[in-house]
Design a protein that fits this description.
The complex is a heterodimer. By secondary structure, chain A is of the alpha/beta class. Chain A is built from 17 helices and 17 strands. Chain A has helices at 2-5, 13-31, 48-69, 110-129, 135-141, 143-146, 149-162, 228-236, 239-242, 256-269, 281-292, 301-304, 316-321, 334-345, 347-351, 353-365, 381-393; strands at residues 73-77, 84-87, 92-95, 99-103, 133-134, 172-173, 179-182, 185-188, 191-194, 203-204, 212-216, 221-225, 245-249, 273-276, 309-313, 330-331, 367-368. Helices cover 46% and strands 13% of the residues of chain B. In chain B, α12 (384-402) packs across α16 (562-574). The chains are: A alpha/beta, B alpha+beta.
Chain lengths: 397, 1130
């Protein structure tokens, strides 16, 4: 390790430039809020009191309906794909104005509306007691009614949209699996945590982000990794020491907590964000989720997405550039090809010419590779050569 | 009857035969025998009642016809109860009473006025008379009358005003000597009584009654139930044969004062043996017949007679039928309709339905002088032209057969061999025999001159030559006909038919040729040269006969020779006749059938079921209607007011509330909801809800009602086919089906035969169902298509009742056998029934589909209900834990109840969104048309005030008009009241339209405001195109809506349930006058009638009633002598 420390330190000037840019831009942006297109629904991130108010408003209207007609119903924005709108300006997926009505006196929706009510009851309880519960806990609160966790998960998401707020505001959390390490100091309720001093494991991102306060950071960029393996490599190398940064991973697909945390730090600290994912469609998809949100939670994308995230690697063209040997390249299978094509069909990919080109190249070569492929040139190659080089040359998408 | 002549072979009579073989017409021992008795007499009774009513209807001034306009309620009627009451009231039976009275000396034992007992018809009586002591007879008569009164008395108030049949069947232990020899066990003796207030019989008619083949119906062929004339006689025979007891008949026609009682046996000589000779007695009824007889049979069980009566009642809802079964149960089928069936017309037989035997019978019986007259008199569709044609054909072939040619002036024999003698016959006026005046005499001439002979042979050869050609053509036709039978496609058939026509034309040509030859022969012979009168010829008579025979047109129908008859029949059958007229077949009618089923089964059918399939398309909101109303009112007040100011009229909420409740108040919710309070609540909620928002439309309200009304509805539908005639028979097929949701009223029958009720001329047919064409036709329908399950034999299965009736004057010809239980399978008949059932089936399918969807929603309701507690507890928890407005103000139970109540109720009218009215296809077509119209919008907007004028009056460009079809143009013209000639070319119509506008335009610019109110002819415009047009549409549609309401109002009216005497005009008979007429002497009613100078039967009847009243009041004394009441003053 010591010998490696002597190794050349790259001047990550491009990353720094971006950092400066964001810093300036961020200061300006702070003044003007993101303007949402007119035909979309506004979802607010609410505090406890506001959420409760909305719950009571909704419940009152239901009770009024019962008294008037005996036929309660709940209206909520539709989350079908036709009602998901891509906001080109802000590069976000948003919920349209389509409303669906869940009627109690209809066989199609009676179960749904009862489940919604149950979840709402639980949310109310959580908020009143200032507690958080996981989806699983909600499911177990009425197993008979939900039948399957899929149903309760759906209802949980619906309740959030029903209240026009984020999932997070409902105090129902998904178990977070992401971890974070690097130059960041936060406060979780009463504990101050320095993410630099947590050994090689890092801090497990808490799902209860409303308890988290970001104290300070001198990082110049944020690096998002797809895999824990890469995380171990970087933390072992104490990468953030050399290049002041915050590293985080969701260990696979990005969960809400991780994305929300990423968004928060990137927004609050105004740092450029880079992702390092496998050079395969799935990796690219993970990047896209960080970038603009998943379809399922599209309505929350303003609170989850990090629109200025950059795809650092591993790009298909990198495989040639760094002359990754053939035995590290994996031929694409049918699903990969299909997924790639699907990605190419997306608007946000089309808009990003470099990305489109890279995907087309992948499709042409029909190969994919993992981050670990870079280890062919030695385990330090990733930390000492690949990342710094890309950061300094601005070789990202 | 013993045969008249000596010999070994003995001849019987029909009576003798039938008396011993009553089983032939259904009187064999068994359960069916009960039914057979009932059916024979019930059918007669119904026929008699109908006969009476029809007769009275013809008489416009008749006051005794059944008026039928009142609702009949017999709910509390019980004949048995009534009889019991009487027993209590009369502790002494009459015999005892009489004995007692005689003992005390209250009454003379001798009838004081013997002369009133009429025996004047003695000589006419052909039957034996059993002499009895008069007292005995009187006693007997009294017994009969009492028995009769037992069943008539309870219905006395209605006996003259309601068509009524009462049947009573009583069971007794049979005398052992009667049953000992019978192989059947469990044999009982039955007393059968039937009373009807039908036309009744005159004394003279009554004498014939009971004899075989004495029928009032067999003469004329009308659509009646019975027609053969051995129903009742067979029943009498069977009754006597089994019990040895006499038959009692009491009958009275409206023209006689007294009813006639008789008690008799019928004999094998087809005569009657009287125990009580026709005797006049007082009667309880104005007209009618009472029959009583006894018979032995196996023990009565249900399922035969009661079924028969039930089904008869279903098909004859115009008559009240009361049946008392042996166990004492009363089956009362009250009259359900207020109209009588039309009287079927007398129908002559159609030639195609006549066989050779029938024709022979008719001919021998005929009193016509000529065949032509005979044909025209006896058959339908037989014009003089057709008759002439038949005779022509007959004569034509007779000439061939008899080798005599008919010439205009005479006759000539047709010869083939040159050696034969030529004879010329001619009728000449000669004086012969004893007469001194010249008469027609057939003179026979023989041919003398060679010249004549030659010219005859010349013509004859030509004539004979054509025979060959005829034979050839005959063969050709036969060939073609064979081919026709084998041909499969219609195209082929037509082709062959054409060829046959061609051949027939050629044959006609030959006959024409022959006529020509005849006329040349005529010329030859009338030249009169070379003819010598042959005075002495051996075979003179023979020749004369031949000449007479050939002239069939001059023959007398009753004196036809064999040859003539055969030829005539051949000719008769060779002609194509028009189908028989269909007005002889009278159906029951689909509406009658439907309403009968509804009332009989107690089906639930809501009033607005008719509207269900065509929902009202667009309706105005209450506010709009009120606004219109206000506008109209204002316009009436001030004509000068401008429409704009009216437009601004504000309708306040209270007014709408009142208006809405007015409409809803008209809806009759009786019987529809078990909890009217709850329903009322729902409605009130609805009203308050709708008025708050002001936007509620009636469509929603009506939909709500429709669904609530029809969800429990049963189904009933009847179809009457148009009358059909084919193969010489005219008939109508009709069917009705009921589908009931309530198994207590109508359950799925276990046996397939109980589903279907077959009727022929309103008479139920219970036996031989599998053989019957009706059953076969029902089986041939694919019921699965109509969502009905089937039994193994493909009869429909379900909670249904299916009735099929075939009516027609000739239906007895369509039966398979004399017992008249099954119709023969006729292709056309099967097809008719099938079509009829399919029409019903289609409607049933619609109903069942609707029902299925309702059921689905009910199932849904159950599922939904399960979620209520959870939902409510969640909501309640939220509210009670947090800071909701409703915290502490709600209870879980209340919420749950509210939600439960809302289940199954149609979604209440939506408030927020109003969907544009759905466009139907037909309207859409018109819209397309509309689009093509070029509106002169600019001009239109300049004229401010009256611009809501009907848009279709606008000027259309010629191009647009040309694009329309001629029908569309016509339609347009009629819509805009542009007059066009009935036959006109398209160009001209366009011209007319254009001229119309040139002329009409100035008028239109300032239409009066009145027109504004009635834009009913507006063509619907696509919603949302122009705001104004839309307004028009709504107004137009709105007009239709109040009508619906009006209808509802009408239906909710209650009808007076009690029958009332139809007599409105009181005659001169008053109590005073009656008392004046009465004296201290015993007087029969006839004496009173004479004294009071009563001429009208109704008055006499009234007198009778009055007397009874006086009797009740105790103002007069009464005594019964010889079955007649006598009165005197106290």
């Amino acid at each position: 390790m010591a010998s490696k420390a002597e190794s050349k330190k790259w001047d990550i000037k491009e990353a720094k430039k971006l950092f400066q840019e964001y810093l300036n831009k961020g200061l300006e942006e702070e003044k003007k809020e993101i303007k949402l297109p007119e035909d979309t629904v506004k979802i607010d991130d609410l505090n406890k009191k506001q959420t409760l108010e909305r719950i009571y408003e909704l419940t009152d209207s239901i009770i009024e309906k019962i008294y008037a007609t005996g036929r309660p119903s709940i209206e909520l924005p539709s989350r079908t794909s036709t009602n998901i709108i891509w906001d080109e300006k802000n590069d976000l997926l948003l919920l349209g104005k389509q409303i669906m009505e869940k009627q109690f006196h209809s066989l199609a929706s009676v179960a749904d509306i009862t489940r919604l009510m149950k979840v709402l009851e639980k949310v109310n309880e959580l908020l009143l007691k200032d507690l958080h519960a996981t989806k699983r806990e909600i499911f177990y609160s009425a197993v008979q009614l939900f039948g399957d966790q899929k149903n309760s998960d759906k209802s949980i998401e619906d309740v959030a949209t029903m209240l026009y707020t984020t999932r997070n505001s409902t105090h129902i959390v998904a178990s977070a699996k992401g971890s974070c390490i690097g130059r960041l100091r936060i406060r979780d309720r009463n504990d101050i945590i320095d993410l630099e001093g947590l050994g090689s494991g890092g801090w497990t991102i808490s799902p209860m982000l409303d308890n988290i306060e970001i104290l300070e950071s001198d990082a110049e960029f944020i690096l998002v990794l797809e895999k824990d393996a890469a995380m171990i490599r970087l933390s072992e190398a104490r990468f953030w020491r050399k290049y002041p940064c915050i590293i985080l991973t969701a260990k696979g697909a990005a969960d809400i907590a991780t994305r929300m945390f990423l968004r928060r730090i990137s927004k609050e600290l105004k740092l450029p964000v880079f992702t390092l994912v496998d050079s395969d469609p799935y990796g690219h998809y993970i990047h896209s989720v960080y970038l603009r949100g998943s379809k399922r939670l599209s309505y929350e994308s303003p609170f989850l997405a990090t629109p200025n995230i950059k795809l650092l690697g591993v790009l298909t063209k990198d495989l040639e550039k760094y002359k990754i040997p053939n035995d590290c390249r994996i031929p694409m299978n049918q699903t990969d090809i299909k997924r790639t094509k699907e990605l190419l069909g997306e608007d946000f990919v089309k808009r990003n010419k470099a990305w489109e080109e890279d995907l087309k190249l992948a499709l042409k070569l029909k190969i994919k590779a993992e981050i670990q492929a870079l280890s062919t040139f030695g385990f330090e190659f990733l930390t000492d050569q690949y990342i710094p080089e890309k950061l300094s040359t601005g070789d990202w998408i | 009857m013993e045969s008249d002549e000596e010999g070994r072979i003995k001849q019987g009579t029909i009576a003798q035969f039938m008396r011993k073989r009553t089983q032939l017409v259904g009187f064999e021992f068994g359960y069916w025998k009960h039914q057979q008795y009932v059916s024979e007499f019930l059918d007669n009774a119904l026929d008699a009642i109908e006969e009476f009513q029809w007769q009275e209807l013809e008489d416009e001034e008749s006051r005794i016809k059944f008026s039928l306009d009142q609702e009949l309620s017999l709910e509390n009627l019980s004949i048995l109860e009534e009889a019991r009451k009487d027993e209590v009231g009369q502790p002494l039976n009459n015999e005892a009473k009489l004995a007692l009275m005689q003992e005390i000396g209250l009454t003379s034992t001798q009838p004081s006025e013997k002369e009133l007992v009429v025996h004047s018809d003695k000589d006419e009586e052909s039957g034996e008379i059993v002499d009895k002591e008069e007292l005995e007879v009187e006693e007997e008569v009294r017994r009969i009358i009492e028995d009769m009164n037992e069943i008539i008395k309870p219905v006395e108030p209605i006996v003259d005003i309601e068509p009524l049949v009462i049947i009573r069947l009583r069971e007794f232990e049979a005398a052992s000597f009667l049953t000992s020899e019978l192989s059947q066990k469990n044999v009982m003796s039955y007393t059968f009584e039937i009373f009807d207030n039908g036309i009744g019989m005159h004394k003279t008619d009554l004498r014939k009654y009971g004899k075989y083949l004495a029928s009032s119906k067999s003469v004329e062929l009308k659509q009646t139930r019975g027609s053969q004339g051995f129903g009742a006689p067979s029943a009498f025979s069977d009754a006597q044969n089994t019990t040895g007891k006499p038959i009692v008949a009491v009958s009275k026609s409206k023209d006689s004062i007294y009813a006639t009682v008789s008690e008799f046996f019928t004999t094998s000589k087809n005569e009657k043996k009287y125990l009580v000779r026709p005797t006049e007695v007082d009667s309880q009824f104005l007209h009618g017949t009472y029959i009583k007889l006894n018979y032995l049979n196996v023990k009565y069980v249900r399922g035969y007679v009661d079924t028969y009566i039930n089904e008869t009642a279903l098909m004859n809802p115009h008559i009240t039928i009361i049946f008392i079964d042996p166990s004492g149960k009363e089956w009362i089928y009250r009259r359900l309709v207020s109209s009588f069936p039309k009287q079927p017309k007398y129908a002559k037989p159609h030639p195609s339905s006549i066989n050779i035997g029938d024709l022979q019978d008719l001919l021998t019986k005929s009193e016509n002088l000529s065949i032509s007259a005979f044909l025209q008199d006896n058959f339908v569709r037989m014009s003089s032209k057709t008759a002439k044609e038949i005779l022509n054909i007959a004569e034509r072939s007779l000439q061939e057969k008899l080798s005599v040619l008919i010439l205009n002036s005479g006759f000539v024999n047709k010869l083939t061999k040159k050696t034969d003698d030529i004879y010329y016959f001619k009728f000449e006026k000669r004086v012969f025999g004893r007469s001194t005046k010249p008469r027609d005499k057939l003179i026979i001439y023989s041919v003398d001159s060679e010249e004549l002979k030659n010219s005859y042979w010349e013509a004859m050869e030509k004539y004979n030559h054509s025979n060959k050609a005829l034979d050839k053509f005959d063969n050709e036709i036969k060939k073609h006909q064979n081919r026709l039978e084998k041909s499969e496609t219609k195209k082929d058939e037509k082709k062959i038919e054409k060829e046959i026509d061609k051949v027939i034309k050629e044959i006609d040509a030959i006959y024409l040729e022959r006529e020509k030859i005849k006329s040349t022969l005529e010329k030859i012979f009338t030249a009169n040269s070379g003819l010598v009168e042959a005075k002495k010829i051996k075979n003179r008579t023979e020749l004369e006969d031949v000449v007479n025979e050939v002239q069939i047109s001059k023959a007398k129908p009753s004196e036809l020779t064999n040859e003539q008859f055969n030829t005539l029949f051949h000719a008769f059958k060779s002609i194509k006749y028009m189908n028989p007229p269909t007005d002889t077949a009278i159906p029951v009618g689909d509406i009658v059938l439907e309403s009968t089923l509804i009332k009989e089964i107690g089906l639930k059918i809501s009033d607005n079921v008719d509207y269900f399939d065509d929902p009202i398309e667009s309706l105005k909101t209450s506010a709009e209607i009120l606004q219109d109303k206000r506008k109209k009112d204002k316009e009436k007040q001030k004509l000068s007011i401008t429409p704009e100011t009216i437009e601004d009229e504000i309708i306040d909420v209270d007014n709408i509330k009142i208006f809405n409740s007015k409409i809803l108040a008209n809806v009759d919710i009786k019987d529809q909801f078990s909890e009217p309070d709850q329903f009322l609540q729902t409605i009130q909620k609805k009203i308050s809800l709708s008025t708050e928002v002001l936007k509620d439309s009636y469509q929603d309200v009506f939909e709500y009602f429709t669904v609530n009304y029809t969800r429990d509805d049963d189904f009933v539908n009847a179809e009457t086919r148009p009358p059909t005639s084919g193969k010489g028979l005219a008939y109508v097929v009709e069917a009705a089906m009921a589908y009931c949701n309530d198994p207590r009223k109508l359950d799925t029958p276990k046996r397939s035969r109980d589903v279907l009720s077959r009727f022929v001329n309103r008479t139920p047919k219970l036996r031989d169902s599998a053989d019957c064409a009706i059953t076969k036709a029902v089986q041939s329908v694919n019921w699965k298509n109509y969502k009905l399950d089937t039994y193994d034999n493909n009869l429909p299965k379900g909670p249904i009742k299916l009735m099929v009736n075939v009516s027609g004057p000739y239906v007895h010809l369509m039966f398979k056998s004399q017992s008249k239980n099954a119709l023969a399978e006729d292709e056309d008949l099967l097809k008719e029934i099938k079509y009829c059932l399919e029409a019903i089936g289609r409607r049933l399918r619609v109903y069942l589909n609707r029902k299925a969807s309702i059921r689905k929603s009910e199932k849904r309701a159950g599922l939904i209900e399960r979620y209520i507690p959870q939902f409510v507890s969640s909501a309640y928890n939220i509210v009670s834990q947090g800071e909701s407005r409703y915290k502490g103000k709600i209870s879980e139970e209340e919420l749950m109840k509210l939600m439960k109540d809302a289940i199954g109720v149609k979604a209440p009218p939506k408030i927020k969104v109003r969907k544009p009215p759905a466009q139907k296809e037909g309207i859409e077509r018109e819209i397309h048309k509309e689009v093509e119209i070029e509106w002169e919008d600019t001009k239109e907007t300049e004229e401010v005030a009256p611009k809501i004028r009907e848009p279709s009056h606008e000027v259309l460009t010629e191009k647009t008009l040309r694009n329309w079809t001629i029908e569309e143009l016509r339609e347009y013209c009629s819509e805009n009241s542009i007059e066009i000639p009935s036959k006109v070319r398209k160009e001209d119509i366009i011209k007319i339209i254009q001229e119309f506008y040139k002329k009409g335009k100035p008028e239109e610019i300032v239409p009066s405001i009145k027109e504004l109110k009635e834009p009913l002819e507006v063509i619907p415009v696509k919603p949302g195109t122009v705001a104004e047009k839309r307004k028009q549409l709504q107004i137009a549609k709105g007009e239709a809506e109040p009508q619906v309401i009006e209808k509802k109002v009408l239906k909710s009216q209650v009808q007076p349930p009690q029958p009332q005497l139809t007599q409105t005009q009181l005659p001169i008979i008053t109590t005073d006058k009656i008392i004046e007429a009465l004296s201290n002497e015993w007087q029969p009613i006839t004496a009173l009638i004479f004294k009071m100078k009563i001429k009208d039967m109704m008055d006499a009847r009234f007198l009778q009633i009055k007397l009874k009243e006086l009797e009740r009041k105790g103002l007069v004394l009464t005594e019964s002598k010889m079955g007649k009441k006598h009165w005197k003053l106290i």
